[in-house]
Amino acid sequence: MLEIYAGMVLVALIGIYCVVRKKNMIKKVIGLGVLTNSVHLLLITIGFQENGIPPIVTPTNIEYFVRYAVDPLPQALVLTSIVIQLSVTALALGIVILAYRGTKTLDMEKLNNLRG
Amino acid sequence: MDIIIRTVVKGLFPFIVLFGVYILFHGHLTPGGSFPGGIIIASGIALLMLSFGLSKAERTIKEKTAHMTEAFAALLLVSIVLFETFVRSVLRPTGTIFELWSAQQILFLNVTGGVMVSMAVILILFLLMKE
Amino acid sequence: MLLILFSATFLVLVLRRDEIAVAAILFSFFSVCYMLLNPDIMVVRFGGWLPPFGIVWVLDKFNLFFALIVTGVSSFVAVYSLKYIKERRYRFYTLLCLQTIGLLGISLTGDIFNLYVFFEILSVSSYALVAFFLDKRAIEGAFKYLIAGSLTSTFILIGIGMLYGLTGTLNFADLASKVSLASPYIVALGLMIAGFSLKATIIPFHAWKPDAIEGTPAPVGAVFTTASTAIGVYGILRILFIFNLIQLNWVLILFGVFTMLVGAFMALAQVNVKRMLAYSGISQIGYVVMASGFGTLLGLTAGMYHLFNNAILKSILFMGAGIAIYVTGKDNLNGMGMRNTPLMVCMGIGLLSLSGIPPLNGFVSKWLIFMASWEISPVLTALAIIASAITLAYSFKIFSAIFLTTERVEKDVPKILLIPVVILTIICVLIGVFPQIGMNIVEPAANALLNHSQYITAVMGG
Amino acid sequence: MKGILFFACLVVFGSLLLYVFLTPSFASWKNKQVASYYIEKGLEKTGSANLVSSIVWDFRGFDTVGEETVLFTAAVGVFTIVVFGLKRRK
CB of C5 within 8 A of CB of C101? Predict the structure, then answer.
């Protein structure tokens, strides 16, 4: 289990680094995606179980289903969260397109004229 | 674009949409459901846009149609879920459990949600491609 | 109520009529008022499932108090925007309705993941509203807000994941019985509080706010500085009190004092009206957070009363400044001179009340805050009075820049822009003269927050 | 200097997260009453073989509606921003 959690934390840190330190706007949006995906990984891992089977009842597995099925709730949460991430990314890209048309650059520093 | 890509896409497009619809309708039996199904349908349209350009895709589904369908599907969805207890008494789960005609409420919601998701994603794609 | 709000959103989009949206938001405001009269805690179970398994909305006094602020501000803004927004108005109203849905959902829900979903509805619609004017400043503000907002809402999601992993449930009331003061829980709740501090603009998380507000339409600025900050404070208070984390309150007091002073000083240095008002809003939130951090009934009442008054005052000021911008076409403090007697009276009252001059409502809540802080430490009282004095200074700066300059524009102000401002000013004076009116709403709310065992039994029992 | 400080913050944040994930009771099956209720009763209560679907649309249907609303909001927002932004430039 340690490897999965460590991997998730590593991916999350890469995402935060990308969002905060990169100057390019597209890279910032990509960083957001990486960060959110790492959280999805975390949520899925919470439902993990040894020898688990998918939480879908079929005629063949109905006898031992209750004992081995993994937790279905995090999967539902991830499904919801993916849609939210999709919509945020779409809106972000729309804003980036407009910013690019206005200034012909993707650099955050050159866009930055609101200060103080 | 390339003729090979165009031919392949032309052949593949109906099957992609069909596969999406299959996933929508079997959301309560197999993995998948409204969101994956809707996204698969939308990805078919995205393929059309990439290979044939916006105008051909516009001929398959109009931007305005997508917008209106999305709004109405969303409205339907909200009203169904808010009156869920009432709906459950009308659409009583009948039929044997592992067949298509079971859990009517979830089936119906899956299809409505799938329509909404696919239309929303198609709309967003249209808008971002217009740039 | 929610169905009407939802359907109004879609109808506005399809039919392109704005009056539907205004009617829907007003309707939700009045239904919240009606529900406040009900003494019991109401629990709405969606789909008929019992609480830990399904989603519930809990309508207790504390939740309804925030719902009242949110819908009240939104309805005044909706009336005001009928004239203020000139083009693409039906789009604006669609987004405004969605934002109201988000705010209302956050304040009423009793489920932690449902809270996240509504938080995202609020965030996504407000990103779009910030970018609404589509000029360079609006785009930049929207992008900064989007990055900061998505980063912190991811923190909230991580916090939710941790809580689910530690306790195996997502319901507030169910969580409250399982969460203890062990350190893993504190990390999880701290992440969520950090997420809400962004909306509440407590000082290390404040940087997006002035940037975002500078480019927005003024009525949206009013919603931002009142309703979304109120929602942020709601999240923080709900988490702190229902999970009994009152031992951590010194953190709140520290951040509150810091926010209060820095916000006031920054406001003094601004030249743009909207930016100055944004910093002023940050400073007022500092008062609220500090007073709530005392943890006593008096402190909590004072803080929430100040939040309530701040909502009224900031709406007056943003709408008044919006009228000035509408008439003169500039938002720089130099060159905004205009003459209009009713507006001058309203803005004057609003600014005086903001800095705590006696017969007005700002004085009532500030006096309560001073009293509450005196019980803890006189130093805090002194700091609060200093911040209040600075408030008076920048209030005078705004007032003189708009109404006392030599070059003034003589132009009629549309009546519909003035109506909400005048109504709010009347409420402001009324509360100042009869503070008991506001007290009747605030005190039950503070009591409901402190006696959270009632909340838990209402949700779980029976 | 700023970079080093930032990396230090990242490391502290990451180790805090790991600390929580490695607490012994984290994600253990015994504190999952809600999940076991879904697994045991989900099939007979909703009649859907796919339990994820039954949670998404039935037990927590309101969440999903909220999620579709987010998608709708994004579509409206992108429409507002992009289409009118393009018109204004011309």
Answer: yes
